[in-house]
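Researcher: I'd like a structural prediction for the single chain below. Treat it as a standalone chain; there are no partners to consider.
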Amino acid sequence: MTTTDRATGHHEPAISAAGLRKSYGDKTVLDGIDLQVPAGSVFALLGPNGAGKTTVVNILSTLISADAGHARIAGHDLVAEGQAVRAAIGVTGQFSAVDGLITGEENMLLMADLHHLSKEEGRRVTAELLERFDLVDAAKKPASTYSGGMKRRLDIAMTLVGGPRIIFLDEPTTGLDPRSRHTMWGIIRELVSDGVTVFLTTQYLEEADQLADRIAVLDGGRFVAEGSAEELKRLVPGGHVRLRFADPVAYGRAAEALRETTRDDQALTLHIPSDGSQRELRAVLDWLDAAGIEADELSVHTPDLDDVFFALTGNAAPAKTEETVR
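Model: Treating it as a single chain, here is the predicted structure.
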């Protein structure tokens, strides 16, 4: 639920921060981080290992203190109202907090006790969450017998016992197989549909692309880019409109007339540099119509988040190949 300023009627972001800094000795981990996360959205933080993603989560969840800067979480000042912040959030880290020596149900009931729920309320919430996360059949079994995906589901279920409106997920699908990862994506989407705000760190670029409303790329202690997945993809070169022709004559006319194209005479295809925008695509179509040339296939190719990540974090992107249409 969005926090509202009664005086202005403006909706306050679920998470806001300005100028966050953190150093360990001579090493600067965060060098002035600003962010705004609207309520009921998914914000993904990308970055290479050691970039400081977990440090951001630890600061915003009150686990460690920033050296400078300020933040508000769920309408509460991070430092002055730390207890209120902790009451409003849930945190799931890279490593499961599940106790393998007790059952899944006992793990849940333990969390209910920690949140000072009555026995009746604790059992009700536990039953609901075990059902929601498809853990009823395994509820009476030791958590040590659970698969990686089951442990991660139990971990998030435990996080939800206190009814947090903001959840920090620090690389929640690390080590999961593709099927379990997709299951976790479904759970995250369900949380957001219920109005929960999700702050996600991940090394899986596809994960950010699939889930996030906004993405920030962290490198060298700073955000080097921030925006929607589509906005970020437009930051790096490599986008193009691909035209394929069945008629060699039409292909030849188009190749001679269109400038700045890359030709593939064997496949009868042309690549026209483009940012993938509707305006540029319309210009290509208008030109084809005016010239009386008909392409048999038109497709738009834009850089993906892999390209963005490698370009913005100073790493060399791997060479990509494109299948030739014959």
